[in-house]
Amino acid sequence: MPQPLTVFPLRAPVxxxxxxxxxxxxxxxxSAAIGLGDGDVVAVSSKYAAIAEGRIVELxxxxxxxxxxxxxxxxxxxxAITQLALEEADHIxxxxxxxxxLTTKGGVLSPNAGLDRSNIPSGKAVLLPEAPFQLxxxxxxxxxxxxxxxxGVILTDSWLMPGRYxxxxxxxxxAGFQPIKDERGKQDLFxxxxxxxxxxxxxxxxxxxxxxxxxRDEATPFAVARGADIEFTDAPLSADAVSIxxxxxxxxxxxxxxxxxxxxxAGAH
Length: 269
Description:
Elements: E1 6-10, H1 21-31, E2 41-45, H2 46-52, E3 56-58, H3 66-75, H4 79-88, E4 91-96, E5 100-105, E6 108-111, E7 124-126, H5 132-147, E8 152-160, E9 167-175, E10 180-182, E11 198-200, H6 201-213, E12 222-226, H7 250-255
Parallel strand pairs: 2-8
Antiparallel strand pairs: 1-12, 2-12, 3-7, 4-5, 5-6, 8-9, 10-11
């Protein structure tokens, strides 16, 4: 029987310089009088974590290359941001004339390789954490030792759902639990065999956390999800655990190699 899911937001000091992330998280839990127990999932803002690591860049110090300047002009971008996106992205698909490149970074489709200029002093940008899965595991180990429990950790970020207005949450890294629940081979309500369904448990929890953490001036970079149906694991996780091959991605494959020829007609045989 499904159980209720409760998500607690945790406030923390506003930061713009490197700091001790785990000490700050422990302090936030103590201030909110929230202890951790078996099965809890702790959500940590990836931006807050990146600031803790010192992943802050002064845009004035960036020297854009000719390629960056060309792309910046084409897509109406800041040349320094364009240069950072070129350096940070694993792959660049293209862009739009609203100031964004579509990229992949750490297995996540994202604008401008996840660079962020919000909630940081003007003239600066925050990169994604250097090694997010390793960081998630470090946080998990520290919290499990402090609270003598078994739990999960996710690093959350905001994401644009293709074809939809508004941002939603995504887990860019996780530790301590299986991020995917595989329903293939099981039966639905009418006894039909499930053939493709795999539930994104980590991403779903990131969405729940993002709702209470906010995007603007809430100063709540942490959250605790309690009551989630998670499957524990101590195995090291990576982007391979959640990122499918491009040829299996309905968005990437359809809009690249899978494009329908321009002369195709609906209903043609």
